[in-house]
Specification:
The chain has a seven-stranded mixed sheet, with helices on both faces. Helix 7 runs antiparallel to helix 9. The protein is of the alpha/beta class and 214 residues long. The protein is built from nine helices and seven strands, in the order αβαβαββαβααβαααβ. It has one domain: 3-Layer(aba) Sandwich (Rossmann fold), CATH 3.40.50.150.
């Protein structure tokens, strides 16, 4: 996401995202307001220093506010697209943009199957990437019909996470956050034991769709 950081630094942003993306954008210098419908996820974001308003994007009230950038990080598939695009158009400042972000992380060492063994009895399996907005061709057609120029950027990269970094990230996933504290603690211990000291090697397929009004 480094190429995007240059464009957003010191700008005002509305973000409908998981907490990880919000924190990265704040670290890049953006003024971020996050919209989150789930009370537990909103509380976690607040505890991490993110300014949050609890609502679905459709029900959220802008109250006259406008933004340089509206970001959905693996979350636009939860939004009714026509309503969502109309609201985005109403809150973008002149020159503002809509950004749809997606990261598909595939563990390769250990493999996903090996990591899934840590979830036995706690969750069905680790969280699989959803079919998100950036891979929805019909949505791209709709966005263009709403008068946006659509630019797609994609990067495939190999990453290595330390054990702590990987486990801490996993514990922010929505299916893990909603576990009771004892189950989360057990999952952390199991993952740390399975990963060991070598960390996790990952292939990341990162895609950003930048939508600019004509």
């Amino acid at each position: 996401m480094g190429w995007l950081r240059v464009a957003i630094c010191a700008h005002s942003m509305l973000v409908r995202v998981q907490g990880i993306a919000s924190l990265q954008l704040i670290e890049a210098g953006a003024e971020v307001l996050a919209v989150e419908p789930d009370s537990r996820m909103a509380r976690v974001a607040t505890e991490n220093g993110i300014r949050v308003e609890q609502a679905t994007f459709e029900d959220w009230l802008p109250a006259g506010r406008s933004f340089d950038l509206v970001v959905f990080a693996q979350s636009f598939h939860w939004v009714q697209p026509q309503h969502g695009l109309e609201k985005v158009a109403s809150i973008l400042r002149p020159g503002g943009r809509l950004a749809l972000l997606s990261n598909r992380l595939t563990p390769v060492s250990p493999t996903r199957q090996e990591l899934d063994e840590a979830y036995a009895g706690l969750l069905a399996a680790s969280l699989r990437p959803p079919i998100d907005a950036v891979h929805d061709d019909e949505l791209m057609v709709m966005i263009r019909k709403y008068g946006y120029i659509v630019e797609r950027r994609r990067v495939t990269e190999r990453l290595r996470y330390t054990t702590d970094a990987w486990v801490n990230m996993v514990l922010t996933y929505s299916n893990v956050v909603t576990l009771d504290p004892l189950r989360r603690s057990r999952l952390r211990s199991r993952l740390e034991q399975r990963i060991g000291a070598e960390g996790v090697g990952v292939e990341n397929d990162a895609t950003a769709v930048i939508c600019t009004p004509r």
